[in-house]
Amino acid sequence: MKNNTLKKIVCVIVCLTLVMCLAACGSSKPSSETKIKTIGINQYGEHASLDNCRIGFLQGLEEAGLKEGVDFKVDYQNAGFDDNVNTQIAASFAANNVDLMCGIATPSAVACFAAAEDKNIPVIFTAISDPVQAKLDSGNITGTSDKLPVEAQLDLIRQLQPDAEAIGIIYTTSEANSVSTIAEYLEKAPAYGFTIEAIGVTAQSEVTQAVDTLLSKGVDLFNNLTDNNVVGVLPAILEKTNEAGIPVYGSEVEQVKLGCVASAGIDYLQLGRQTGAMAARVLKGEATCEAIPYETISEYGIYINSAALAEMNISVPADVAAKAIESSEA
Predict the structure, then answer these.
(1) What ranges make up the beta strands (E) of the chain?
(2) How many domains does the chain have?
(3) Which of 63, 116, 294, 310 is a Cys-bridge partner for 121, taking CB atoms 3.0 to 4.6 Å apart?
(4) What mean pLDDT is predicted for residues 108-115?
(5) Taking a C-beta distance cutoff of 8 angstroms, is the pair 142, 124 a contact?
(6) Which domain holds residue 101?
(7) Same domain for 129 and 212
(8) How far apart, in whole angstroms, are the C-alpha atoms of residue 33 and residue 31?
(9) Is the residue at 317 inside a domain?
(10) pLDDT tier at 7, thresholds 50, 70, 90
(11) CA–CA separation, 189 vs 166, rounded Å?
(12) Is 162 helix (H, G, I), strand (E, B) or coil?
């Protein structure tokens, strides 16, 4: 009798122990491996090129097998070309301990890297012409460069305007990518028979005044960089240059769609996808940012806007037309 009672007590104790273990297991938190990662996207401002980078970035993550809402969530912030807001966004990402930051355009990448450094949060950048000049080529950071094909652009301009001499360029003095690109234009333009009239600005509000100054100097054409302050007010620039009968060349397809006559430029959707694929490797734990060298997109296209060219009485040589992609909005 005593043995039976003892057995019953032991059975009850074992059962209670099992129940408590199962309850503990059921209430445990998911492991870090199942945690949805947070990506903070800091976009310096809103224009088609940077928007395409962001869209392509998300496409690149999906193409790498990561699904939004399942594997990651996005905290997207737009600085509106305001440097103070840009810094605040990056600081908020760091304070919230996001799993990865993506800086779209040089100022945003610089701000993210500065904010992430103490916490060792990985940073991915895109739409940066010169990562070395911007000091973004080492540390817990990597990404893609949109370095312009300067010689291809100069060659295109020469073919479309064989008699042109002076090229006007507006750039932001605080944007490292613009400063380095201007230096390259100054170096290479003489080989194509051009002089460069460059005006530096410090804010977007100064751009249209710089346009008036270059028009008064008698430039034969304008050439855009991927300068965010300039591209952000491109419609206002085109209004002035169209009235003066001076063509504007873009640096990528979206600028041509808006009314620039032509461009030897890159596809920012593709650049974004390339960036997303790199970010996916970091999020999956396949590689660290330090182990992935930044990449430069090597292929470019020739884009033309036939309506804008016709307005400027510019004819397209047959060999250019054969490889050009029509890129008007119409």
Answers:
(1) 37-43, 72-78, 100-104, 123-128, 141-145, 166-172, 195-201, 221-223, 248-249, 262-265, 295-296, 301-304, 324-326
(2) 2
(3) 116
(4) 97
(5) yes
(6) 37-146+268-296
(7) no
(8) 5
(9) yes
(10) low
(11) 10
(12) coil
